[in-house]
Predict the 3D structure of the following.
Amino acid sequence: MKTMTAKDVEHKLAAGEPLNMIDVREVDEVKEGKIPSAIHIPLGLIEFRIHELDKNKEYVMACRSGSRSGLAARFLESQGFSVINMSGGMMNWEGPIE
């Protein structure tokens, strides 16, 4: 599984690079703030919302620490998706949040 640090993600977004971000945290966690371009799909709903995703796109997965996003990344990879896990998760995120 590919990984990318939160700082690398922040730099790419700041440079205007389009990243397809998916935040797999729970609703109450996302209320504390999420990366502005990220779509929110809680980990437990990934398999039910997989039809919303495009296998021609690469996705960067995020959660609080990188653990749940790693699970989501492995699942999506097993379904034929190209995925990167944001290591360290939102605990290491220093960029803007909404």
